[in-house]
Amino acid sequence: QIEQDPQFGMLDGTRLRDRYQQFTSTARELLADFRQVEENFRSLDRSAREKIATWQGSRGELLDELVSTRANIDGSDQ
After folding, report:
1. Is the pTM of this model over 0.70?
2. Residue 4 placed within a domain
3. Is residue 50 situated within a structural domain?
4. Superkingdom of the source (predicted)?
């Protein structure tokens, strides 16, 4: 079809602006999602460091606790 009509698939100004707005909206949403994931990661890191610093049990128990936290992370949507 492109050989028959070189204009095939071309967007007019209105459609082009609409696509651009969709693109910028999606980009903003992705950036917000990545910021949220980063904040969650920092929070989990902080929590793990606090556990390590204040842990009173054995190293094995600490490791079990940290690994169980990892399992919770694997099960999350983020």
Report:
1. no
2. no
3. yes
4. Bacteria
